[in-house]
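dumping this here before i forget
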Amino acid sequence: MADVYQTIEKTAFAEFKDRGSKFIAYAYPIQNADEFKSCLQLLKKEHPKAVHHCFAYRLGLDGNNFRVSDDGEPSGSAGRPILGQIDSKQLTNTAVIVVRYFGGTLLGVPGLINAYKTATVMALQLVPIVEKAIEINYELQCNYTHLNEVMTICKQFGCTVLGQEQQLFCLLRVGIPKARLDEVLFKLNDLHHVDVKPTSN
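structure:
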């Protein structure tokens, strides 16, 4: 399995028009389904008069975590073409929502597929694709006096600090790049005063 994945880091939007209908595609970097729901709710508030809010997103690395919605458009004419564009760029942790304003002329299924696909392509062209290290989450517990050593190792190997609690002991949640996992664990276990354990998520 790969040690990196591709995603986007910024949001972007683009507009496509066809026979009076307006299709506005919004691309979002997301970490989970809840983040996606927030994006969708905001767009529905922003575009209350739009007739459809169609979308697709893909999360995670196993290829099984995705959702598509045609939101009342003919089946397969909106969500699938949007997902197809996310997949053609091999992106994950990415969502695209396309807001449609109806222009009075029916486009037919081929016209809809083309419109949703084109709007998605335009939005995704506006955001740089970034490569990120696949990380495995660990919890590190150490005495306050050893925090510096732990942080130095985290910095050295490009780990992401996801959370930090300091009481009597320091508890760190870190994402360790999969490609460097053995080296990082070796260094941390070498410190003796650090308790290292994988987390379930």
